[in-house]
Design brief:
Length: 201
């Protein structure tokens, strides 16, 4: 029997097929405050997680994972934050109105990746409104056009593959270092024969 992700609108199964796509599944914490936090994050009325309830890796940020070993694990204290809620379950976003936050919005970098030309806006209020709109585009929001969505997914895949490559190279270096140390130790104790000596160089 397949177990599926418990997040709203997500139907990723706990299977080899999803794992080959880079999606991992993680069981709910067994007890305690963290389990309650995960249950509340789902925003499902009266939801209580069972011992088999799980969430897929798409509900977590990339920095929530420990990818140093052979298995992908969640870091301690992590709570799922990325969900695709319908409008009636979304929480309203508070707007900032202080002078400091308006100044920070004015200093946001401009997004030049959009297809339409940027108008020459002289009014500070218009510029602030435009930058505020661009600032709301987070990693978990979908772009308006399909082309931008595909580009965003490719960028995320490239970043993931680069991380995996870096981790694999690090594991390889550590394994070589350990092997050299073991061979040196064996050589010092005269426990290595001539056949294995060729590997120690």
């Amino acid at each position: 029997m397949l177990d599926f992700c418990a997040a709203y609108g997500c139907s990723n199964p706990h299977s080899l097929k999803t794992r080959t796509r880079g999606i991992t599944c993680h069981l709910f914490p067994k007890t305690g405050e963290r389990k309650r936090q995960w249950e509340l994050a789902l925003r499902r009325d009266g939801f209580v997680a069972s011992c088999r309830t799980l969430l897929c890796s798409e509900q977590f940020r990339s920095e929530d994972f420990d990818r140093m070993g052979q298995t992908v694990r969640l870091k301690d204290g992590v709570v799922p934050t990325i969900f695709n809620f319908p409008a009636h379950l979304q929480r309203p976003v508070a707007t900032r109105g202080t002078t400091t936050s308006r100044r920070a919005e004015d200093n946001l970098p401009m997004d030049l990746s959009q297809d339409e030309p940027q108008p020459d806006v002289g009014a500070t209020g218009e510029r602030r409104k435009r930058r505020k709109q661009q600032a709301t585009d987070h990693l978990y929001t979908l772009p308006a056009c399909l082309k931008a969505l595909k580009a965003k997914r490719k960028e995320a895949r490239v970043r993931k593959l680069q991380r995996e490559k870096t981790n694999a190279l690090g594991r390889g270096r550590r394994a070589k270092k350990i092997m050299r140390a073991l061979l040196e130790e064996l050589k010092e104790e005269n426990l290595i024969n001539e056949e294995l000596e060729c590997y120690s160089g």
